Amino acid sequence: ENAMLFASEVKQRYKAETLQNVLIQLTSDLDLEKVLDNILVKLETVIPYDSACICLLQNDQLTAVAGRGFKDPHKIIGQDYLIADDELFLDIQRTRRPVVIPDVSSDRRFKYYGGENNIRSWMGVPLIARGVVIGCVTLDSDTPSTYREAEQASLAQAFASHASIAVENARLFTVEHEQRQTAEAFREIG
């Protein structure tokens, strides 16, 4: 029993240290494209997946802005999904909590996003910045019941909270950079 408790503690400590290291690396970049790619790369070290996607909310649509592990990422990246038709995202947005589907074949709300019909287990995690849902991260697994534990959802939410800050910082940096360039152009014209 002590050995099992010790092994569990070591596993939890490893997860916490990994998460801390990943989060430090996430917030070190301000280029939005690099931040999005970095989120997906680092997420896999915390929660394994076969494919994953980051979607950001723009008006009444979710736009897939980054993806990893897809056979043809160009079919997914840049795609817009109306949120009015997406029960899963509406649930994520309303509850502001991860939605976990251990077996997608038993959940009528699941639509095979991007035409990937080999997905068997799915998790959607909200990206929340300044109290507002700005999008979500989706994790796909080809193995049923990969995502079923509350611990996985909690870990994914902790990761997504920091990822949201990194995305918002990169967005703000991009806007500030564009405004600075515009001001410089006006000054040169003047």
Give the secondary structure arrangement, pairings included.
Layout: H1 2-26, H2 32-46, E1 51-58, E2 61-68, E3 80-82, H3 87-95, E4 99-101, E5 121-129, E6 132-141, H4 150-189
Antiparallel strand pairs: 1-2, 1-6, 2-3, 4-5, 5-6
Helix pairs in contact: 1-2, 2-4
What does this structure look like?
With 190 residues, the chain is of the alpha+beta class. The protein is 47% helix and 22% strand. The chain is built from four helices and six strands. It has helices at residues 2-26, 32-46, 87-95, 150-189, and strands at 51-58, 61-68, 80-82, 99-101, 121-129, 132-141. The protein has a six-stranded antiparallel sheet, sandwiched between helices. A hairpin with a 2-residue loop joins β5 (121-129) and β6. The longest helix has 40 residues, at 150-189. It is globular. The mean pLDDT is 83.
The backbone outline, from C-alpha atoms, is: globular
Structural class: alpha+beta
Question: Could you spell the SSE succession in H and E letters?
Answer: HHEEEHEEEH
Report Rg: 18 Å
What does the largest sheet look like?
A: 6 strands, antiparallel
Number of strands: 6
Can you tell me the residue ranges where pLDDT is under 50 for at least 5 consecutive residues? none
Mean pLDDT: 83
SS field, number of helical segments: 4
